[in-house]
Amino acid sequence: MNITIVGTGYVGLVTGACFAEMGVNVTCVDKDKGKIKILNEGGIPIYEPGLEDLVNKNMTAGRLKFSASLPDSMKDTEVIILAVGTPPDEDGSADLNNVLEVAEEIGDHLDGYVLVVNKSTVPVGTAEKVEETIKKRLEERGVDIEFDVASNPEFLKEGSAIKDFMAPDRVIVGTKSSRAHGIMDRLYRPFMLNNYRVIYMDIPSAEMTKYAANAMLATRISFINEIANLCESVGADVNMVRAGIGSDSRIGSKFLYPGVGYGGSCFPKDVKALIHTAKQNGKRLRVLEAVEEVNELQKEVLFDKLIRHFGNDISGKKFAVWGLSFKPETDDIREAPSRVIIDRIISAGGIVSAYDPAAMDEFRKIRTDVTFTGDMYEACIDASAVLLVTEWKEFRIPSWPTLKRIMAEPVMFDGRNIYRRSDVTANGFIYYSI
Q1: Residue 56's pLDDT is what?
Q2: In which order are the strands placed within the sheet that holds 171-174?
Q3: Sheet containing 385-388: which strands, arranged edge to edge?
C-alpha cells in the first residue's frame, strides 16, 4: 500500500514512521526543503523519544521516503494524509490556509482515485471545504476524477506519541463512502488485530470529537487548579482532595493534577478554536471561556508566590528555573507556563538561570536574557530560589544538601507538586507548592 503524508511536523513524521513500521510504503512531503534535507540525511527536526530510531530504521528498509514535491509523490499513491499546521488566527480561529493550499495542489495534479484524509486539527466543515477546493480545481482542468475525503483526527501525546500510535486507545474515522471506509480499515486493522478500536462516524462528528476531547481534558486541568487555589485559602490539601475525588469511577484521577497551567500546541489552540466555532454559530461556550481564563491566570500563580515571599522586591536576585517545555519528554515550548514565569521574573528585575533536558535550544530562539546551564545543579548556584516548572524525571529526587550548599537562599517553589513538604522542609528549605 502506498500513502503520501503532507507535513513533516510532529503529527506527520510520527504518522509516517509508524505506518512504515507496519509495512506501508510512505512518502512524507514538506515544502520546507531544508527540513527534507535534514530528514534525508538521517536527522530529526523535532524531539520525540524513539522517533529518530524508528525513522532511520524504515528509511533503511526503503519503506519511508521524504520529498519536497507533492505532485511527484502522488503517483501511484492511494491515500494522501494532510498533517499540516493550523495555527490560531488573532481571533482564535484555526488558520486553514495550509490545508486548503494542499487541497488546491491535489486538485491541480490528481490523475486517478485517491482518498484525502485530514489528520490536521481542523474545525467542523473543513473536510467539506477541502472537497469543494479539489472539485473546483478539477473543474477548471476540465476533468472528472473520483476521490474521497475523510477525517482522521490525531490523539497523540507528546512524549509517548509512538506508543499512542502503535497501540491507540481508539481511532476516530469520519467517512461518507464505503470505499473510503474500506481503505481506512486496511490502514488501521494491523494495529488492532486483537481488539479493534476504530470508531466510524460521519465527518462533522469526527472533526468535532478532536476538539471536544481536548476541551474536556483542558477543563479538568483548569478545574483542579481552581480547587487547588481554594484549598490553599481554606487550609485543605489539594493532593488529598485529588485522591478523594479521583477514586470515584465516574471521575477518575487522570488530568486532575494541579500545576502552573497547561500549554503546548493543542489545548490552548483547540480551546480557542472551539470557542470561535461556537461564536460563528451563534453560541457561547461559557465553560470553555472560563477554562481559558483560569489557565492564563494559573500561569501567574508561581510568580505571585515568589514575589510575595521576597516582599515584592526581587531586583538583582538570581532564580533557577527547572523545566522549560510545557510537559516532560518534549522540547515543545509553545504556550509553556515557563515563558510567562520567566517573563515576569525578568520584568521585575530578577535574573534567570534555567535548565531543561530537551527544550533549551528552542527557548534560546525566543530569549537571549536567560542563562542556560549544563545541569540542574549548575542552574542553582547562588540562586535565591528554585522554581520547578516542568516535572522531568531527573528533577524528582534532588540532592537537597547539595542544593542548600550552593544556593544563596534555600527556597523551593514546586509548580507541579512532585515533592513532599516534609522531605523538603526537613532539609532546611522553605517550601511552596500549588
Answers
A1: 95
A2: 64-67, 25-29, 2-6, 79-82, 115-118, 148-151, 171-174, 198-201
A3: 371-372, 351-355, 318-322, 385-388, 411-414, 430-433
Is 380 considered catalytic here?
A: no
56-62's contacts with Cβ under 8 Å and 24+ in sequence apart are 57/21, 58/17, 58/20, 58/21, 58/26, 61/20
Q: Is residue 315 within 8 Å of 307, Cβ to Cβ?
A: no
- The neighbouring-strand residues paired with 320 are 353, 386
Q: Residue 376: helix, strand or coil by DSSP?
A: coil
Residue type, position 229, single letter: N
Catalytic annotation, pick one of 18, 28, 266, 380: 266
Give the Å distances, CA to CA, from 330 to 55, 164, 284, 336, 397.
17, 15, 33, 11, 20
Tell me the average pLDDT of the chain: 95
Taking only the tens place, the pLDDT of each residue in 22-43 is 999 999 999 999 999 999 998 9
Report the alpha-carbon distance of residue 190 to residue 220 in Å, rounded.
Answer: 33
Q: Which domains does the chain have, with CATH numbers?
A: 2-166 (3.40.50.720), 210-298 (3.40.50.720), 301-433 (3.40.50.720)
The pLDDT confidence band at residue 45, using thresholds 50, 70 and 90, is: confident
Q: Is the pTM of this model over 0.85?
A: yes
